[in-house]
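chain below, 207 aa
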Amino acid sequence: MAKYIDPKCRLCRREGVKLYLKGERCFSPKCPIEKKGAQIPGQHGKKRSHGRLSGYGIQLREKQKAKRSYGILENQFHTYYETAIKSAQNTGEVLMQLLESRLDNIIFRLGFVSSRSLARQLVTHGNVTVDGKKVDIASYITKPGQTIKLSEKSTKFAFVSPNLTEKNVPAKWLSKKGAEGKIDRLPTRDEIGSDIKENLIIEFYSR
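prediction:
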């Protein structure tokens, strides 16, 4: 499966906001947004950053920001949109719920790791079970009532163990005890707390 392998901090600078792709580093003075501001990367970034975006450009940037925040490529992101548009519920909210229901995001929201990329690493290396069965697909869509547990080996990893000893509070729609978590229900839009404007993404795909 294709994946982005270039420096993650470039993505934050391109979107002009912190996407929190590198965990604790994003909260430190080492974050490029803190040092260089929201200047677009590249030789001509300073000139491009002052341009005024069209309506299409604003919608495109919002879609790109959402994709990059959750670490998803275009085909898969569009599939989520197609699923959401078929729902009788609010399309934007369903889209965000689908993104939040990804297994890698659940690991992140439970507070087991500090970034979605680390959560994806845990899943793809076979260190996560769902209802007692090993799942190594980061895009696996979880459902309310399911139980997610880390393998005993992974609880000793340096990027995991500190999060298990600290009293990290998971998202309101999740519950956690030690290295095990449960999906109590789907999140409401307010509980997701993202600055993503999903209505612009819907407009982009609907044009």
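The longest strand covers residues 147-150. The chain has a mean pLDDT of 85.
thats it, cya
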